[in-house]
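Appendix B: complex inputs.
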Amino acid sequence: MENSELKRIASQVRRDIVRMVAAVSSGHPGGSLGCADFFTLMYFEVLKQDPKKFDMNGKNEDLFFLSNGHISPVWYSVLARSGYFPVAELSTFRKISSRLQGHPSPAKGLEGIRMASGSLGQGLSNAIGAAQVKRLNVDDALVYTLHGDGELQEGQIWEAAMYAAAHKVDNLIATIDYNGRQIDGDVDDVITLGNLKEKWQAFGWYVLEMNGHDFDDMRKTLAEAKAKTGHGKPIVILMTTEMGQGVDYMMGTHKWHGSAPNAEQLESALNQLEETLGDY
Amino acid sequence: MIEIEVFGKKDTRSGFGEGLLELGRNNPDVLALCADLTGSLKMDAFQKEFPERFFQVGIAEANMISIAAGMTIGGKIPFTGTFANFSTGRVYDQIRQSVAYSNKNVKIAASHAGLTLGEDGATHQILEDIGMMKMLPNMTVIVPADFNQTKQATIACAAHEGPVYLRFGRPSVPIFVKPDAKFIIGKADTIIEGTDVTIIACGHLVWKSIEAAQELEKQGISAEVINMHTIKPLDEQAVLQSVAKTKCVVTAEEHMYNGGLGDSIAQLLARTNPLPQEYVAVNDTFGESGTPDDLMKKYHIDTPDVVAAALKVISRK
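Resulting structure:
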């Protein structure tokens, strides 16, 4: 897909995000906006999936696991915009009886979601299980994940990292949203991750890096990651992003990690984001 | 004279091991994961025969549960194996989010449950696990009584679609369930029929309850003994039919008072037909090191405790 088209979609996705969280005065816009370009590229170009034929087992399809479930708005928007469920359903986000729970869950049968996430640190393990079963099923499709960088403070991530290398889970591409921010502040001030690249390397992973707002760089890096599958090692991509990307007052701070804009702030945000595909 | 046919003595965990092996031979979708306790869980035969379907996770139980949940995507039926303590309390959040809430077809096989784990002491003797697991929506909770029943329950778990907690133990106990008795999840077994008191038990306390019924018979008391191997979903009909006759109930389990089988029965009776009930269970205390027999005596979950509870509850009618 042309970068210009991806940009148009991402702009609409960002509008969806801020409108969804503003409508219920809750949710996590910062990380959602920061990952909008990544999700757009994944769902409109990279993932081998058929939105119209979603089923839980996903045989012969690429699988995607969102481990940092609080950025559900970006996932819901991209799932709807790519055809998994009606775009109009985005208006139900976080409301009573909605399939679009605050944190993603398959409990209400929302197409595109295979595992609940929200309690952090668990998605890498989930993805490893799915990836190992793909091998057993002689299924060559891949398994992708996304994690927050703050999420890497959870010990289970490192249990999973150790396991994936030991078991040579090489059909798995994990991505870290490396925005350096978490709810309480900068990751370095909360609990620094140290040298993240060397940590993953020491755990036996291939480590790649990319700019999460540069479609060419992401396309190239994801292709390189794909080329590294099947070589006996799991792959992780450290993706640099800006929390709040696309809305000026949400950038450069952790403050919009988990708070929603008010009516005036929403208007300001929408003025910065072109409506390209039509609001829901 | 109450006579119960006994087919020797064995540990219930070995019943799990045999059931898992049989499943491995009959169902190519069955997988097994273990967190460095393969021998203790009796999973080694499966590991040896099906190495490609066995996953050694190491000492990382949280990772094991979440991996198992992921393995259901693609149609597999994973069984996780570790001690009951590390199968539940240690990984409650992982079970809650990715097994129960996500409603995945994971079978949590938990050995060394309760006091009868013995000498390792209270760090390993979980007495809260039935409560934790039965509180989770979508979760089925099974506590089989002997070797044969554990084997059949293991096989039944695989045929059941959805999360299951299967709890068994370490010590060698009498085998009284027939080897070919089909295990039906949620269908209680009435082992002894009686008219004066209903004794409802699970796990190792079923045999103790049989012994208690034999003792009560000598005192001229007719006890009905029900093996409530499935705590959830509870066979309410079996309970209500029995208490309609006996008008009182004793519950017996290797678990805390709080949250166990006894509470499930009390809740049912409170809603439908309030009747006197006595608990044989551990009363809000941790265990300690000791032999299984000494522990059951000291913590009052032994045969004489069931007898005493029966006499007491009859007096309350």
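The radius of gyration of chain B is 19 Å.
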